[in-house]
Amino acid sequence: MSSPSSDSFTKVRQIIADNSVRDFTELYKSLYDNTTEASKIITIAEGLHNSAISSDREITFMATIAKLL
Predict the structure, then answer these.
(1) Which residues, including other chains, have CB under 8 Å from residue 61's CB and lie 6 or more apart?
(2) Fewer Cβ atoms within 10 A, N terminus or C terminus of the chain?
(3) What residue numbers bound the domain in which 46 lies?
């Protein structure tokens, strides 16, 4: 049996794939705009920073999602 966070991770990953997302900046901004928890904001900022230096931004974004879940 999969956990709710595992199901959520899979759903987000599928949405990203279905929509052929290549620019994740707006997604990071949306995550930031919709949270008030300092620890989550730090995680989002780290993900955005890592995305800037990553050759595969989708992997970096999904790692951020995994940490948030």
Answers:
(1) 16, 24, 27, 28, 47, 51
(2) N
(3) 4-68
